[in-house]
Amino acid sequence: MKGGEHAADELLARAREYLRGIMNDSEKLDILVKAFANLEGLALALVRDGRLKDAGQLRAFVTGFSSRLAFFDFVDVGVGKERADHKIRGKSS
Amino acid sequence: MLEWAKSVPIIRYAVRVLELALCDTPADCLPECMKFYVDSSQCKHIVLGCCHDSGYAPFLGQFVADNSASERITLLEGSPFPPPIKALGFKRITRFQTVFTCQGRHSPPNGTSSSPPSSPSTPTRFYVNNAVQWDRLGPVVVNGAGLRYDRPLLVDKALVERLKKANLCHWLFLRGECVGCARNHVHHLLTDAEFDALWSLARQGRCFKDRKGGNCSDPKCIYGHILGMATI
């Protein structure tokens, strides 16, 4: 939970800092963040690699991240990477 | 949903940070979302973090030629871009190193087949974080007899305990690189106070050269040096 909140704060700070460098009046802008992930697959991978103890830790992170700032969202897109990638490549060729 | 959002003028958005820095992520939503914001005049800038995956190169390619789009897009680099992404030639690239630091699996520098020394049975993971404040480790300080000692550190005991529990990799978080070990490599960039606290933990292990009676001259050596302590 705390980790997600911290990540959101830090991401906002870095984004603000970056935008200040490339445009005027960036302070007036709202910053929206959308993080797309297959949460189930991601949790499995992180637990497998020993980075998390269990899937609950990722859920807590996501909750913390999404609830910290109004425009910050984690979007769980579920499985289907292959299908989606295929779609992207198909359009471009 | 998107049509609905387009029809509501009161929704003011300006900058979109689209993150896709994590593994196994379906891409369906991202292209749709991206196109929506590229077409919107209210969206002033897009920071896009999906570029570890070369599968997005064809999709991103469509924006390169269109100046009004490409000037509003910054690619966020975590682990180094694969060649198809690099070849697109996007001019704006950035890193948020305190957010996406060392969690990526990096290739060894300047080599495809060369690998850092490790036993053949263990898979090699190479971690690099160029933002680490390793210059705090130096310069080497010596006593009157030319023997090295460690400058004293003011560290908070509670902080030391917390970092001890986090089991952070000393090499990555103090020196900025690790050729692979069992410790934790996932953490935001340390503050100076955290850095010193972790350094104090690393110093509890004595420098090999120091222990053998040799004078260690590595300014980035993270271990303890006590040869010069007696006669500072």
Structural summary, described in words:
The complex is a heterodimer of chains A (93) and B (232). Chain A has a two-stranded parallel ribbon. Chain A is built from 4 helices and 2 strands. Chain A has 93 residues and is α+β, with helices and mostly antiparallel strands. Chain A has one domain. The radius of gyration of chain A is 16 Å and the shape is elongated. With 232 residues, chain B is α/β, with parallel strands linked by helices. Chain B has 2 domains: 12-94; 105-232, no CATH class. Chain B is built from 9 helices and 8 strands. Chain B has helices at residues 2-7, 29-39, 57-64, 67-70, 83-86, 157-166, 170-175, 192-203, 208-211, and strands spanning 15-19, 45-49, 73-76, 93-94, 127-128, 141-142, 148-149, 177-178. Chain B has a 4-stranded parallel β-sheet, covered by helices on one side. A two-stranded antiparallel ribbon of chain B has the order 5-8. In chain B, helix 2 (29-39) links the parallel strand 1 (15-19) and strand 2. In chain B, helix 6 (157-166) crosses helix 8. Chains A and B meet through helix 1, strand 1, helix 2 and helix 4 of A and strand 1, helix 2 and helix 3 of B. Strand 1 of chain A pairs parallel with strand 1 (15-19) of chain B.
